[in-house]
Amino acid sequence: MKSLNLLTIALAAVACTPSKPEIPTTYISGKYIDQEEVQSIYVRDYANELGYLHPIHLDTIETNADGTFSWSFKLTGPKEIALHGDSEFRVIYLEPGDSIFYESDADYYSPATNLSGKGSDKIAVLEELKTLLQLRPIAGKDSAEIMPEYDRQVARYEQIIDSSKTVLSADFHQYLQSTLLQNKRYILSIIPWYVEGSKKIKLEIDSTVLAKTKSDLLAFAHNEPSNFRFTEDLFYGLSTSSRIDSLTPEENLARYEEKVFSMNFSPVYTQQLLGMKYLAQMEDGKAEIITSKLKKLAQNYPGNAFQKTLEKQNNEWLAISAGAMAPNFTANYVDSTQFEFAELVGKVVYIDIWATWCGPCIREIPDSKEIKDQFADNEDIVFLNVSIDSQVDRWKSFLEEHPEMTGINVNDPRDTEAEVCEDYKVNGIPRYVLIGRDGKIIDTDAYRPSQKDELINQLNEALGISIAKM
Prior knowledge:
With about 475 residues, this protein is an alpha+beta fold. The protein contains 16 helices and 15 strands. The strands form three sheets. Strands 10-9-13-12-11-14-15 form a seven-stranded mixed sheet.
């Protein structure tokens, strides 16, 4: 009898133990209209990445022959993902239990259409917001209309967010607020530069307005929104505010770290912000000071999700840091014969990585001509122009039409997958690299021709010409 009572009690205890709630399955499906061939779509954990070029892949989807695709995932909380393929880069805010369907015409920038299913209303809101706070439509106005247009679009943006507050989740409302803060800060920071470059007009932004966008973004950061662009902007803001030009890179890095730690973010968010800064330092030619930082990161956050990526990147950047031998990349001369960089060892080489479709590259040409003319009588320096144009005939025609493109002209038609881009980890052009007579790297991010005084001093130093002799 006693054993029976114990069994009854045990069964009752099991019956009273609450079961773990089942994690709902989240679905995304869609169709690329007019898709010409089967393609891969990479599902990226966008909010938690260190940068666009450092994706965290959650899964890979293969489209069917008719352009349809589907994906399912066990989601425990809200997550910003990105679908990245040949047809699009689409950021989607997912919540557990969503079942979203949309169509796209396979044009990279086309909006999602024919939305249906649970959660698709979030995509509709994001599509509408994508039409607002875009740089060119605002900066394209007459200078007197730029700020009124900006204010009008901000008001419309806020109206859309407010109207969605009562019908969509609190998490998504917070996400929308973070997109607004990020867009405001970005637009106000970039508009003066864009207007001056495109219209040759100096546009003044009220410093108090700009300061408020920065302080608002900083204050909101304690919510740690699942929003990559917000986190990236936060990183830029913290980097700028903690930097003092008179300090060494090591000292400025320490100031940034101190600033991040003082904000008491969660460990994961702290790691992401530190990782973004460490990557930026590597790309700025400071990989050697990051090695010890990565050891400390591993000690403070064992098993952190960013360690392998950061160590891999640091090793690659160390391989092309100042003092390392320059890679012997190849390309083709205008007559299609092969060029090898080794041909130029013994000369100081200023490499200009460019393309005819790159506006900023083209704008550097007049200044580049002036720099080349200044060193025209010096046989110890070579100006090497490496085009990454995939349309080789277009490159050749451009050279014929622009005789001011003096120096050695070569081409690798593989665009950003060109050998020189792979060797020097180029993720944007124009890019300038300076190599010494001994074939060793001086600077993988040398001054641009438009930075005339700085570049001339850098070239003179590489040539061993003192400023006093000039």
